[in-house]
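Pilot study result, target chain (228 residues):
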Amino acid sequence: MGKKILVVEDETAIARVLQAYLTKAGYQVETAFDGDEAIRQFTTIQPDLVLLDLMLPGRDGWSILQEIRRRSSCPVIILTALGQTKEKLAGLNRGADDYITKPFNAEEVVARVNAVLRRPPQIWEHAETRQYGSLKIDFAARTVTLHGTELSFIPRDLALLLFLARHPNQAFRREQLIEEVWGLDYEGSDRAVDLAIKRIRKALQNWPKTEGEVKTLRGVGYQFCVYR
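Predicted structure:
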């Protein structure tokens, strides 16, 4: 049996199109047409991925995303007419794995679903908090604390740091980081990754090198190294 996809979309015609294309691609597809039904379905079927509209009757998509992230690391792709950059960043920074704006091409949605499900599963501890020596990262609250003081990051840098910290001691190329963290809609230069890493290192400058560091691997990419 194929992996299970939950489509949360209040427009019946759109939901049916997505269901048809995803079913053809070999997925098991369930639909929910409002926020409360979405949470019930998520609990019941335990999907492998959720396609989530933001503007829904009852609970909106933001609260659903928050609830999913509180419970699990199930991939979530936001599918919405809200296409401004600030909304895309908000979605990614709150834990969405990708962000697609309407109108969309159904075949592209299937391709995005395939891409997200090919990624290595993210590891989330039950408390969603990890301690790397004097550095504490709370993935649920999206906060980073060093020596007891909360650090400040712009949203894009925070999303990059959280992703790297979820995959300690793994190396990622710039292109991977752009796709995994900022999404396929990102249109800037891969140089932006270098600049973000530079700002992250500056914020972490008081993190003892004996505990960890954000390391450059020449010719490979970047790695969140943890030594204890």
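One observation from the pilot: The chain has two domains: 4-118, 129-226. A full batch analysis is planned for the follow-on phase.
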